[in-house]
Amino acid sequence: MKFFLKAWVCLFLFCILLVILAMYSVSNVNEIDSVVDHKSLMSLQFLWSNITMKRDFQILNDGKYVYTLDLRQYREEFPYLQDYKCNKVSEPKNLCTRSAGFVNLILAIKSYPGSFDRRHALRKTWAQPQVIEDFLINPVFLMATTSNHTEMILVEKEMLKYQDIILWDFMESHANLSLKELCFLEWMIHCPSCDDDEFVYPPAIVKFLKRTPDASSFIHGNLRVHTEVLRKGKYRISYQLYSMDVLPTFVSGAGFIIPGILIPSLYRAATVLPVFPLDDVYFGFLAIKANINLKHGHGFYCWGLKFDACKYRNALLVHSLFEYDEKGMSPEQLLDVWEKVITKQNCTD
Ligand SMILES: *[C@@H]1O[C@H](CO)[C@@H](O)[C@H](O)[C@H]1NC(C)=O
Ligand SMILES: *[C@@H]1O[C@H](CO)[C@@H](O)[C@H](O)[C@H]1NC(C)=O
Ligand SMILES: *[C@@H]1O[C@H](CO)[C@@H](O)[C@H](O)[C@H]1NC(C)=O
């Protein structure tokens, strides 16, 4: 518990639409440690300012299965994913600022340019900059571009106004979501600092981090253990691309928490692994390559949780008001739930 105060942790949440990424400092650190920490981080950044992607044929082993990722096949089906170089059009100012004694928690939320009303609802509810105990909480929306010029003009205004959007120049699409993970890792490397239809309760996240002493050595989330590969539909993966019947274990739905100190090794993994066209699975592969263990955390209700204000107060995130509902919450539901949760009293916990 004592080593919680000066390193970075990221909380990444993604159900169908959400990524929360929290960066926070951990450790029992006194000022001296934190200075050292910062310095080594600076030199890492320096080293990485020149890193190039060297993607290649990869064989990964998670102790149970061996996965072969043949770059040629990935190039054939998803050339853009393999060759894209992250190019930011815009990013918020000041998100990288550190404050002594505080833990930075960045909530990274995957959003689409057209989801104006969702972002609006989030900014009024859980995605607002705030301080909870010794945690500085800052939301950031991860977005790419669309061909709708009107939308992009509105997004530009929104960026200037709220300073909470990172925009990259690739086109939004389902497969391209993996690029958000990749580019976000890259952004984190250079800045030591969810989909948008979910309910997230920041105080519960802070509580979770405080009572989980090993939070900085694992990626916590809703574990999906060796699930079956789908050959049809939106999550379809071709047999040529990936011939195994099972996927690697990954954290999904509910989202996950990444300690900032693990970001460099994840990013290093991203420089050599082919980019898998399903973002959460892609992250699973990165974790294997980086030799990072995934751990199940309670409180990630990816598949929904029937509304109960007290239960919601202890949830890290909830995707829907109903169990097994893929649709997620509407902006109206979010506002309503938020109001009820923050005003709820007399919960036993
Ligand atoms: C990056 O690479 C270029 C060309 O190889 C080199 O000139 C430059 O000094 C490098 N910069 C850093 C920060 O390593
Ligand atoms: C572009 O976006 C605006 C705002 O979201 C929407 O009203 C309009 O229908 C869109 N245009 C096209 C061609 O999709
Ligand atoms: C991903 O983005 C690129 C660049 O914007 C675009 O050319 C490509 O069509 C997108 N991929 C998909 C599957 O839409």
Number of strands: 14
Shape: globular
Query: Which ions, cofactors or small ligands are bound in this entry?
Result: 2-acetamido-2-deoxy-beta-D-glucopyranose
How does the helix and strand content classify structurally?
alpha/beta
Main sheet attributes: strand count, strand direction, barrel closure: 9 strands, mixed
Written as H for each helix and E for each strand, in order along the chain, the element string is EHEEHHEEHEEHEHEHEEHHEEHEH
User: Portion of residues in helices?
Assistant: 25-40%
- Strand % is 15-25%
Distance between the termini: 21 Å
Summed up, the helix count is: 11
How many domains, in number, for the residues? 1
Q: In angstroms, what is the radius of gyration?
A: 19 Å
Low-confidence blocks of residues: 1-46
Please state the average pLDDT score: 79
Would you give an account of this structure?
InterPro entries: Glyco_trans_31. This is Hexosyltransferase. It comes from Erpetoichthys calabaricus (Rope fish). It is found in: Golgi apparatus membrane. Its EC number is 2.4.1.-. By secondary structure, this protein is of the alpha/beta class. The protein has one domain (9-301). It is built from eleven helices and 14 strands. It has helices spanning 31-48, 71-77, 79-83, 116-124, 149-162, 177-190, 202-211, 263-272, 279-289, 309-313, 331-343, and strands spanning 9-12, 58-61, 66-69, 88-90, 103-110, 130-132, 135-145, 165-171, 199-200, 219-224, 250-259, 294-296, 300-301, 317-318. Strands 1, 4, 5, 6, 7, 8, 10, 11 and 12 form a nine-stranded mixed sheet that branches. α5 (149-162) links the parallel β7 and β8. α4 packs parallel to α11 (331-343), α6 packs across α8 and α6 (177-190) packs across α9. 44% of the residues are buried. One 2-acetamido-2-deoxy-beta-D-glucopyranose binds at residues 46, 49-50.
